Amino acid sequence: MPSTISSDTISHEYTYAWLGTAGKSASTLTRDSIEVRRNCDTNPGFEVDASGWSASGATTTTYAWTGTANQSPSTASVNGAVKRTNYAHMGNLRAYNNTKINADTGGWHSATFVNGTISDPIRWDLNTYAIATNSAIAASVVVFNPNAFPVTVVLDVGDGSPVTTVVQSGSSATVKTWYNPNADGTFQFVDLASTTGNATVYFNQAIIEANVQATGAFFDGSTQSTSQGMDVVRSVAVSHSGLASLQVRWQSPSRQGGFAAHTVLGLVDDTDYMVSMWVSIPKRLSKAVLLSVTDSATQGPNAVTLQEATVGWQRIVFPYRTPVGSTGLSIWLYDPNSYTGSYLAQSVYIDDVLVETGSAELPYFDGSTPSYVEFESTLPLVVNGWEEAATGGNLVNPVVGGGFDVTLQAASLRQGAFELVYEDETDAAEAFAMHCRPSTFTISDTDRASAAMTYVIPQGGRISRALDDQTREYWIVRVEYQEV
User: Can you give the pTM of this predicted structure?
Assistant: First the structure.
């Protein structure tokens, strides 16, 4: 019979508490002031911040004009440090002789070359910029040919060796060149010209860079900032419990080998721990990643693959034994993939991290979990040997001359005995001790409703505990009871 036996008067106070700063320390569960569980993670719910977690790192690239927008050079900075400068802009762009620059149309500038000679270019003047001596200069520009015939365009950086490119009708092409200057390091111009008679072309995405032999991807001061890599932040957008969770973010058009990691210290070596956390993946990850527990800064052998979107939150549990001499562990979310192409934006959320000794999967807690009072109870594997009897209550007195005088009264409540069967010795010992205390008890059974009652151990009633002689595996607690 699947039964529950509980004491009606014996209660225990279960108290949850932080061992230090709320939300930023280990926490304990005590039973009548005796510690019964400990969450060794010092930032389990991310209610304050994301401290204790690290990532392979994200870089943020920002773009800015050095002066007036479109009238000054622009810079590309990575995490605040200038890495590239584009000297090409409308402010230093002008026409010579018969070449005509028309209005900007949809981001494209049109240039009409009248006589088709290289002496009639459009020109980006560079003589106002200090470029280091003996530093190479590279230039490129995208040219579109709207004419019904091919147009030959020329890009010249003043080295006497202009680069000639044929742009087919209705097509665009990137025209590029570079020049390693003389010792004086001076540059006067970059010219775009045509050798195809009278022709109009459109151009944009002009870029002129120093100290390189080839230009990088186009940018100017209006280019939108970007981030790439993996990082970790506290998020209040979603949580499994409380107000926040940890967000592991991918921000990468091109990235390899990212990770997010968390180390828990102060453990005992050569000891079993149960590590668990709740995970949410709002949308399917582009590629599979691995979550594991390890004793080193690398993926662990017990890795779980994550990729599919979760319905709400999913609990992931890792049984883990600390190696001899190791007093810590790391939770390791590793992405072994590389990404190319469009901008990648995806996240994994982690919350309610639990690290505690033992091998049982128990509910999450931290110091903010509500404390409670619980009456002592026991759940045996089965209730066996059920016996019940009642003592009649009728009063029967013989009458002189024959017969009996009977006073009818109800029989006594049930009395008898039952056996509680346990596989765990500790559970049997606790059930025995519970019945030895001064209390009333309640028994209920989901299959045998008639067994339900409140009872006591009557004076002289016996309580015994024995190991089953046949199996030597089960413990039997026998109780003699009186229903009340």
Answer: 0.61
